[in-house]
Amino acid sequence: MEKREERLLREILSFYKGQQGELIPILLQVQANFGYLSEKARKLIARFLSITEGQVYSIASFYSQFRLVPLGKKRVTICRGTACHIRGAPRILEATEKVLGLKEGETSSDLEYTLETVACFGCCALAPCIRINKNVHGEMTPEKVKELFPHLK
Amino acid sequence: MVNRQRMILVCQGTGCISGGAEQLLSSLKREVAKLNLGESIEVKRTGCHGFCQRGPLVVTEPEGFFYSKVKPDDITEIARSQLPGGKPVERLFYRDPITDMPIPYYRDIPFYSRQQRTVLRNCGNIDPEDIEDCLAVDGYQGLRKALHEMTPEQIIREVKQSGLRGLGGAGFPAGRKWEACRRAPGDEKYVICNADEGDPGAFQDRSIMEGDPHSVLEGMITAGYAIGAKQGFIYVRAEYPLAVKRLRVAISQARNKGFLGRNILGSGFDFDIEIFQGAGAFVCGESTALVLSIEGKRGMPKPLPRPRTAEVGLWGKPTLLNNVKTFCNIPLIIIHGSEWFAAKGTERSKGTAVFSLTGKVVNNGLIEVPMGITLREIIYDIGGGIPGGKAFKAVQTGGPSGGCVPASLLDMPVDFDSLTAAGSMMGSGGMVVMDEDTCMVDIARYFLNFTRRESCGQCVPCRVGTKQMFDILDDITQGQGRLEDIDLLLELGEAVARSSLCALGQTAPNPVLTTIRYFRHEYEAHIHEKKCPAGICQALSSPQGLN
Hints:
The structure holds 2 protein chains of 2 kinds.
Chain A: H1 3-13, H2 23-34, H3 39-49, H4 53-62, E1 74-79, H5 82-86, H6 89-100, E2 113-118, E3 130-132, E4 135-137, H7 142-148
Parallel strand pairs in A: 1-2
Antiparallel strand pairs in A: 1-3, 3-4
Helix pairs in contact in A: 1-2, 1-3, 2-3, 3-4, 6-7
Chain B: E1 6-11, H1 14-18, H2 21-34, E2 41-46, E3 58-61, E4 65-67, H3 75-81, E5 94-95, E6 102-103, H4 110-113, H5 131-136, H6 141-149, H7 152-162, H8 174-183, E7 190-195, H9 204-211, H10 213-227, E8 231-237, H11 241-256, E9 272-278, H12 287-294, E10 319-323, H13 324-336, H14 338-342, E11 352-359, E12 365-370, H15 375-382, E13 392-397, E14 403-406, H16 416-421, E15 430-435, H17 440-454, H18 460-477, H19 485-499, H20 503-507, H21 510-528
C-alpha cells in the first residue's frame, strides 16, 4: 500500500471511534474508496478496532459485498434474481462471459473488467438486467449484451 | 411562494432511472423554463409509480395524463402540451395490451384502477427528497397525534386491535411484539427497521424507501415512543444506493423539522435514527442474525433456545424489529384508527399486501392489493395475464422460503394463512409468474442453489441438506436423475425443514416440496423419459425435439 493510500485509510478511520460495532461500516467505506479490502487495509483496520486480523477476515469473507482482491474498472454485474432467471438470465450470463472472455467472478488481467453475479438488485420489472458500475440496463437479450460492449469483439 | 397549479411528475425510481429518467427530469426543467412556464408549472421528481416496466414514466397533474416509455425527444412535446390550449401527447399514452386502445388517464389503467394503494399512498405523488411535499399530504400527522394525544399503552392497544401482522414474511402480530417489547424490563431499548429485502425477485421495500422515506421514519418514531426506545436503526442492504441516499436526506430533514432528535414536537420524547448498511447476507433476515450483524459480527442465528429479540436484542437490550411496510402502516392506523384498518382484508389477515409482480406477466411492477384478493385477480386483472398467448403454469411467492402455486389454486384468496396452507408463504412480497416455458425442476434447482450459497453454515441440516438437495436436482436437470430421487428429495426436505436452526433452513425445502406436490409429472418426465417438458434443461431433449 502506498503512502498516499495509507493516509486516506487513516483519514477514513479518523471518523470512527474504534468500537467493534463499526467494523462493517468501516469495511464498506474502505471498499468504496479502494475497490477492495487489501491485506494491509485489513491489518490496519484490525489494529484500529483492537481485534485480530482473523476477526476482520471472518467478517470480510462472510458477507457477499466484500472483495478481497482488486476489481476491474468496469464492474459488470448480472442479476440472477428469480424474475431475471425465468426471463433468461442464464443466457445473458453466458453471452456476457463470451463477450468479455471472463467467467463469473473473474477479473481481466488488465484490470479493465470484472464479471460478477448478484442475488437480486431489485429491478425485477425490467428483467433480465445487467449493471455496469452504477448503470442498470433492463430487458436484456444476448444480442443487446454485445451492443453494450461495442469495442469488444 | 408561488402556488403552481400544474405539475409534471417525473418518476425517479431505480427502474425509471435505468431508462434515463434523470436526464428527462433535467431537460424537462430546462424546456419548461425555455417556454417561460416556470411560474405556472412545477416539474417534480417523484419516487416509484410502480409500473416500472413501462418506464420512464411521466404524469401531468391535475389532468392525470399518464405517459409511458418517455424518451428525451418527447420532452418538448410534453412541455408544450402544458401551454394554454395545449393538447396531450397521445402517442405516449399507455395502450391496453388486448384492445390496443390508448388509455390517457392514470386512474383508468387497469394496472392501477384495481389496486388499493395505502402503504404506497405517497409513492409516485410526492418528491421524496422534499419534506414539505410530505407534510402537504399529512406527513407526520400520525406522529403528532401519537405524541400529543395518546399514551404508549393506547398506541399499542390500537396497533393490536388493528390486527396488523408483520409484513416482512412471517406475519407475527405486530401489536403483540410491541407489547412484549414495552413490557421487557430495561431503560435502554431499540427499534430496528428491517429493510434488507434479501429475497430475490422482490423490490417493494426498496421502492417505498425511494418513494416515501418519511412514512418509514414516522412509523419508527411512533414505535420508539410506544415501546420506550430512544434510538432506531434502519438495516438497509448496500445494493440499494438510491434508497440509502433518500433515507439520509429524509433523516436530516426530519431532524431540522424537529421530528427527530431531542424533545420531539415539544413532547419531551427523544428519538433518533441511524442507517446501517447491510453487507449482503440473506440469513440476516433472521432477527438474531440481523442484530449480530449490526453489532459488527457474522450474521449467524443464535442457537436454540434463543431469546426473543423483543426481550434480548441489540447489545442484549429489548429490540423491536419490523419490516418497512409494517412501519408504513403505523401512521395510518394512528390517524384513522384500528377499526378503519381492520375493515380491510380478511378475518385473520388485515389491511393490504404489497407485491412485486414480475416474471411472465404482461404488466410488471409494484402493486398493492387488499388481503384476500384472489391470485387470478392479481395476475389477470392487474397483471394483464400471460404475454404471448402462453399458458399460465405457476406463481411463486415468498422467495426462497416460499413455493410455487399451480393454476388449480388461482382462485385462492391471497392472505397469510391460505398461502401457507398451499405450501408457500406470503413472504416479503415477491410474486413471480411462470408460464409453460418455465421448467419447475429448474426453478427448484435455482432456489436450492440460492439457499445453499446463503446458508450460514452453522447447522448441519441446512449446510449439508441444501447442498445434497441441490446436487440431486442438478443431476435430474442434467439427465442423471434416478427413480428413487423424488422420494429422497421428499425425505431430505422433511429432515431439513424439521431440524434446521432457523427459518432459512426450515423453509429452504419449500420450493422443492411444492414443485413435487403440484408438478410431479415434470420431475418424472426428466427422470423417466429424460425430457424437459418446458425445453429449458439443455442436457435433455425438449418434447418438440428442438434440442
